[in-house]
Design goal:
The protein is α/β, with parallel strands linked by helices and about 775 residues long. The protein contains 26 helices and 32 strands. The longest helix has 19 residues. The protein starts with 7 loop residues before the first strand and ends with a strand.
């Protein structure tokens, strides 16, 4: 990596970069070879500063004085600063008490993996390894981002990681594509990000190159800017949550006009005749034709028929964004998009067929790596208890209650201690008033955090951790060949320690020190996981430099495979010799397994199921605007919300809420007005901006503002504009039980005398 002598290589989830300290200030610039650097890098220059840092171990006063136990004052209580030695003794004693009295099934190990792009100081791996050494813990499965897709995809086509990492190559779209139909779009704001960090950003240039090669785009979304304006394209804006009805109308047109690929459906799919009976209305008397779809979607039926004909006229790639499945019945649009692509017959051909999240994340569309990336070993969890990640509030509030998940009947465990390292559930989760009640129930909540997020404020014990710039690490990501030597740039601020050092000290006090560290400190673990990578490279026929050479160079390029989507092409060539991993070995348009579960909210084939909260339902008479709570442009999730790139999207510390001018006029709202968004679950304040790029009947408010409730009352009112004060905490269906936070119904009104946001200041922390 080319850099000046005073610059240090480093990496983040939104890109590799070089950094230096200039006059006491941190300065950051993108990787010198990055063709499309992420604007989010600007946030890093504020990462070590400000009142938001946790400076020393902090214990909630009520927990210290009254001992462990459920407590509704979490989130509003003051904190007491303790020295590290005393803090570690108290944490170790509490862990010992819970494990001895209640066992590992009473401990929930929370993390979400986005704390650092580094592979050793990966908070999720660290906390899981530590709790595994102690005897196990209740884990979570799947993600808030793609929970419904992660469950439905392997049942009907292929595992999620295979679909996003090894299906469609940008080069094939450029060379062979003709039409890309993007359900949910390919928003510029998210394509800079990928877990583990992209060394270089290729998605934007690839989308432009495809345009220049003659590829046309169709955007299907309530937001016009879910596809970059420079790409042109046709914008269709159906009512949110009606994409399945639209896809059914397209599918019906294909059948009615004999434009579907009968041979492909017969040889490469399973169960299509069952689905076609539903599509044509043989059983319920309602054909799912373009007129029917138009009445649900709010579109012109001729536009639906016209789009179907365009899709059938040549190579078409159907892409589905994360946001479509992050909603009630979220499994259905993914399944229906696969079905629609199968009806067109293009699956397995280069540049057409089906893609999940293409253009959404930085590394999707890139060639898969020929070797596995380095990782910190988590060990084995001795117990099997788990929950779907988005069901944490259900677990804490309803211990012992049965729930369905992916064909299994499970029971929520009785959690006494929550240990969270890396992640902010008060960003990711829905219905924050309910989550606040849920976090009041455990006996103890322990959090590792660099910053005073809402999760830290709702903890009993907050242990200050270093940020990524304050330690050495190795950055690496799936589908990106760049392995980055992440040099420490800054000294740790305050009394911050890295997660490894904290867990090593705790493990030593509990008698598991050697089992956790294996005799290595953090630097030795860096060399150890690099040595594993070097062995894999040599086995693959690639010479690996020494660790010292890699560390000095700042970067190592891994070999990539040249057969992107090869597994799908082989299936296309001979489905008998190369079956899929589904029960039939084919694309399952009808799933006997799913039908056998008997879930009314997830039948055996793609189905239009009217959601509870949509513009065509009864609740819309009370809350007539569909809130689109999408990903932010100025930050990753809620990270570095106080950084300059994030603050540039706020007004006076509040997020901006975008409305169509017609909806604003109906409510007597003007540009820049402070507005109150509300429903029965809560409210939040935001600054209004009027934009024709928002479909009438919708309001867009990005996620990620740090939850700043006015007070402890329910329902909560967030001063900074966190939309999860409003969203609904309900699973997508009994199949996936995934997050439904993308869309909900609200009303918007002019705010009178809105309170001033308190920003990112620390809570009261004093001596004992």
């Amino acid at each position: 990596m080319k850099r000046d002598i005073d610059e240090h290589p480093h990496s983040s989830h939104w890109g590799a970069f070089v950094a230096r300290v200039d006059g006491g200030r941190l300065r950051v610039r993108a990787h010198p070879d990055d063709p499309d650097p992420a604007p989010l890098l600007a946030n890093l220059e504020a990462a070590a500063d400000g009142d938001a840092r946790v400076s020393a171990p902090a214990f909630r006063r009520g927990w210290l004085e009254q001992g462990p136990g459920p407590d509704r004052t979490r989130g509003g209580d003051a904190f007491v600063r303790l020295p590290w030695g005393q803090a570690l003794e108290l944490v170790a004693a509490e862990l010992e008490r819970v494990y001895e009295q209640h066992g590992p099934a009473a401990v929930f190990g929370g993390s979400y993996g986005w704390a650092s792009a580094g592979r050793v100081h990966h908070a999720q791996s660290q906390v899981h390894r530590f709790l595994n050494v102690l005897g196990g813990y209740v884990r979570s499965v799947n993600t808030y981002s793609a929970g419904a897709a992660e469950v439905i995809l392997p049942r009907v086509l292929a595992p999620y990681t295979e679909l996003v990492g090894d299906t469609v190559a940008w080069g094939d779209v450029i060379d062979h594509g003709r039409l890309v139909v993007a359900f949910g779009g390919m928003p510029e704001r998210t394509r800079y990000v990928h877990s583990g960090g992209p060394s270089r950003h290729h998605a934007g240039p690839a989308l432009r190159a495809a345009r220049d090669a003659g590829v046309e785009y169709v955007l299907i979304s309530p937001l016009r800017d879910d596809l970059a304006a420079e790409l042109g394209g046709w914008w269709l804006a159906p009512r949110p949550l009606t994409d399945v009805a639209l896809m059914l109308g397209l599918a019906h047109t294909l059948v009615a006009e004999d434009l579907h690929d009968r041979e492909f459906l017969q040889r490469w799919t399973s169960g299509y005749p069952v689905f076609e009976r539903y599509l044509l209305g043989f059983d319920d008397g309602q054909p799912k034709d373009a007129a029917w779809a138009a009445s649900i979607c709010g579109l012109d039926e001729d536009d639906i028929r016209g789009l179907a004909r365009r899709m059938a006229a040549g190579p078409t790639l159907i892409s589905v964004a994360h946001g479509l499945q992050r909603a009630e019945h979220g499994e259905q649009p993914v399944w229906m998009a696969i079905t629609l692509a199968a009806m067109l017959g293009g699956i397995g051909r280069p540049g057409e067929g089906f893609a999940y999240a293409l253009g959404i994340f930085a590394n999707i569309g890139q060639p898969p790596l020929a070797v596995d990336i380095p990782s910190f070993p988590q060990g084995q969890n001795p117990i099997g208890a788990f929950i779907p990640v988005a069901r944490i509030a259900d677990m804490l509030l309803q211990p012992g209650e049965a729930f369905d998940y992916n064909g299994r009947s499970l029971t929520y465990p009785d959690i006494r201690l929550v240990y969270w390292a890396g992640g902010n559930p008060f960003h990711h989760h829905q219905d924050l008033g309910r989550l606040r009640r849920a976090f009041a129930r455990p006996e103890t909540v322990i959090v590792h955090e660099p910053y005073w997020t809402a999760t830290a404020r709702h903890a009993d014990i907050v242990l200050p951790t270093t940020i990524t710039l304050e330690r050495n690490d190795i950055g690496s990501s799936r589908n990106d060949p760049g392995v980055i030597a992440m040099h420490q740039v800054l000294p740790p601020q305050g009394e911050a320690r890295d997660d490894f050092a904290i867990f090593a000290a705790l493990a030593d006090r509990l008698g598991y020190g050697d089992a956790f560290t294996e005799g290595r400190d953090a630097d030795a673990w860096l060399r150890h996981i690099y040595a594993g990578l070097a062995e894999r490279l040599e086995a693959a026929g690639t010479e690996a430099p020494s660790f010292e050479t890699f560390w000095e160079a700042g970067e190592l390029q891994l070999p990539v495979r040249d057969d992107v989507g090869g597994w799908l092409r082989h299936f296309r060539d001979d489905p008998d010799a190369h079956p899929l991993g589904t029960p039939s070995g084919r694309i399952e348009i009808f799933s006997e397994a799913i039908a056998g579960f008997g879930y009314a909210d997830c039948p055996g084939h793609p189905t239009w199921l009217p959601p509870d909260e949509w513009l065509g339902g009864q609740l819309a008479t009370t809350y007539p605007l569909q809130l689109v709570a999408n990903q932010p442009a100025g930050r990753l999730h809620s990270q570095l919300d106080f950084g300059p790139a994030s603050l540039a999207h706020k007004v006076d510390g509040r997020e901006t809420a975008r409305l169509n001018p017609a909806d604003a006029r109906a409510r007597h709202l003007g540009e820049g007005d402070v507005v109150r968004l509300f429903n029965e679950r809560g409210a939040c304040f935001a600054s209004a901006t009027l934009d024709e790029a928002v479909r009438p009947g919708c309001v867009q408010l990005a996620t990620g503002a740090w939850f700043d409730p006015l007070d402890a009352t329910d329902p909560p009112t967030c001063l900074t504009g966190n939309p999860n004060a409003l969203t609904r905490d309900r699973g997508t269906s009994s199949l996936a039980q995934a997050c439904t936070g993308q869309l909900t119904l609200v009303e918007v009104e002019l705010a009178t005398d809105p309170p001033t946001p308190r920003g990112h200041a620390a809570p009261a922390v004093g001596p004992r």
